[in-house]
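Re: your question from the hallway

Yes, I did run it. Sequences:
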Amino acid sequence: MKPSDNDLSARKKLILKAIVDAHIDEGEPVGSKYLTQFKQLAYSSATIRNEMAELEAMGYLEHPYTSSGRVPSNLGYRFYVDALLQQYSMTAQEIFELNQLMHAKMLELDKLIDRATKLASSMTNYTGLSIKPRPASCTVNRFEAIPVDSSSLVLVMLTGVSTVKTKYVKLDSEFQKEEMIKLGTVLTECIAGLTADEITLPKIMEIERQMGVSYRIVSPAIKCVYDALSESDSGDVKVEGADLLLQYPEYSDISRLKGMLNLFEQKDQLLQLVADADDSKVNVFIGSENSVNTMNDSTLVFKTIKEGGRVVGAIGIIGPRRMNYSRVISTVNQLSAAISETVNGNAALEEGNNSDNN
Amino acid sequence: MKPSDNDLSARKKLILKAIVDAHIDEGEPVGSKYLTQFKQLAYSSATIRNEMAELEAMGYLEHPYTSSGRVPSNLGYRFYVDALLQQYSMTAQEIFELNQLMHAKMLELDKLIDRATKLASSMTNYTGLSIKPRPASCTVNRFEAIPVDSSSLVLVMLTGVSTVKTKYVKLDSEFQKEEMIKLGTVLTECIAGLTADEITLPKIMEIERQMGVSYRIVSPAIKCVYDALSESDSGDVKVEGADLLLQYPEYSDISRLKGMLNLFEQKDQLLQLVADADDSKVNVFIGSENSVNTMNDSTLVFKTIKEGGRVVGAIGIIGPRRMNYSRVISTVNQLSAAISETVNGNAALEEGNNSDNN
DNA sequence: GTTAGCACTTAACATCAAAGAGTGCTAAAA
DNA sequence: TTTTAGCACTCTTTGATGTTAAGTGCTAAC
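Structure:
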C-alpha cells in the first residue's frame, strides 16, 4: 500500500464504495443525486459530483457517455476489493450446507470438487468452475498388476491418498498370471515416485532385466504407465450453471455472452490461468486484468486446493464484474478450505474413528 | 407408412422438400416467389402458393403471420426427415478424421465417447452431447483388494472390458495384508455378477463367514461396493461447444438460449431421454416432440452405444430445428457405429495383433 | 469548502410514415 | 380442370422525428 495508491480522502473512499455498492445492486450507472439519499453522504449532489469528477480523473470511475452516471473502472473494482470490502459472514443455512458437503461420506477428490463447485454456484447464483489441473509431475507410489486373461491385465497405479488410476494393458503375447503379478512389484521397485520424464531407457532396461524371460511384457505396460503419467489425465474443467449468467443484464448482450461461452469451451486457457495463479489465497481477476481478453466485463474468483504441497484442483466462480464480491470470495474461500482440510486431514486420520468414510 | 400419412402428390413433396431445404439454408420464412427460381419447380408463384396453402391445411407448414413466407411445422420436419431426406456422404476429410479417432490408441470408453462427441460437434458445427447413462444394473465380474497400509485398502472392481472402478476403503481396525487380499477373492466368489439390489443380508453373512476371524473387514468394504454399484457412477452428460449455438439466429433470442442452457444443466432430463430411446437407430427429436418443453425450436439427434447388449453411452448433437439433418444424422450414426465397433471388436481381438492398443 | 442553479448532452422511448415482402382471391388463359 | 396474371390487403421492417428524463459541468453565490 504505497501512499500514492491509497491517496484517497476518507470521503472519496466513502463515495467510491457507495458507487460500487450501488452499481452492484442496481446494475446501472449511478448518478450524484442518487447518492445523496444515503445518510453517510450528507452532501449536496454538486459536491458529490465534484468528487466523482476527481475520482474519474484518478481512474477509479468511468463515464459511459458524456452525461450519465458513473461506473467503476477495473481499477475502481480492484481498490474496492482490496481496500473497501467488508467481510461477509455466512448464514446458518450456508454453514449447514457446507457441513453437509464436508461430512458426506466420500473421499474422492474429483467428486468433492465437483460438488463443492455446484454448491458454490447455487449459493452465489453465479457460474461455478470445477477445475482439475493437468498434474504437472504426477508420480505413482505403487503399481499393482491384475491379470485378466492370458494376454491382458489391469494396471492399478496408486498415486496418492485420494487418487487411483487404472489402465487396461493389452499384451503382445501370452503370459502366466505370476509373470503379470511380478510386473507390478518390479515396476514399483524401479519407477515408483518418478515422473514421466524420469522414466529413461536405462530404467526400462532394468525392468526388463528383472522380468527375466517375461521381458516382452514390459514394453506395452510401460506405454500405459507413460500414458497415465502424462497425456491421460489431461486436466479438466467443468462448468456448473452456465445458465445462471443469463439472469444478469450484462449478458443480454449476445456478443458478451458468446465470449463467455467461448471461454468455457477453452478449458486450456482456464487451466493455464489457474496454473499461473497464487496458491495461497483467493484469486480475483477483475475484467481484463488477466490475459483472457474476452472477459472484459466479468470477474473470475477462484482458489486452488492443495493436497500435501501439490495443487490438485481449484474451485471458482465466474460472473459479471458487478458481482457480490464479499459473498463470492468468502464462499470460494470457505469451500476450498473445507476441501483442503478434508483431503489433508485424511492422512492424519489414519487410525480411522468410524466406518463411515470410504 | 399409412397411405393417409403419405398422401402427398409428387409435386407437393417436391415443394415441401424445397421449402424445408430453403428454410434450413436461409433461416427465414420462404415465399412462393422465391421457390420459382428452382427449375424443378417450373410453375408460377400462384400455383405454388395454392399448393402451399394446402400443405399448410394438412399441417406440414406454418404461417408466422398473415402474410409472410411459410415455415415447416414439426410435422413438416418429421416428414422431411422420414421420407424426403437424401443420404449424406462424408467427405474424404471427414472419413480421415473419423479413422484418426478410431485408430487412436485408447480403449477407455469414456474418453472415446468424449472425443467422438467433440468431433461430431466440430464436424457439424452444432453442440455435442456426450452421454454416459447411469448404468441400470451395473455388475462386477471380479474384485481385487490391494492393501495400502494396515487399515486401508484399494478395492479394484472389474466391470467389463473397458471399465474398471476403484474405491478407497478405510477400515475400522487393523488387518493383515493376507486378510485384505483374501477379501478380494471372497467377494469375487460370493457377489460377482450381482447388481446392488441382489446383495442381500444372507450374502453378506456368507462373506463374513468365509472371512472367518477377519469378518470385521467386510462391512466397510461392502459399503464401498454398494456405493460403486449404485450411487457412484450416476450418469454424466458433457456438453461440447455450447457456444456454437450462438451463430444461429434462433438463439439470438435470449429466452430461447436460456432454455437451451438450462436444458444442458438438467442432465437428468437428458439421461432420461436417452434411457427411454430406441437403442437400434438414430433418434431424432424434432422440436417439442419429446417431453422436454423447453426445446421447441431445437432438435436433438443421438444414438446410443452398446457394449455387449447393454447401453453404455450415447453421442448426440443438439441444434436449431432448422439443422442440416442429413449431415447430422449421418455423422452421429457413423461415429456411434465406429465406437460400438471398437468397443465390441475388443473382445474379438483377444489375441492382440500388435502392441499399439492399451 | 459547499451548494444552488442552469445550460447542455445523450440515451431511451414512442410515434409515424414509407417500403417491402408475401399472401388470398378472382378471373382469365391454357 | 389446371395454371397463371393481377390486384387488394396484411403485416413486418426500417428510418426519421420529437419528446422525456437523467445526469453532468460550470459558474456564481453562500
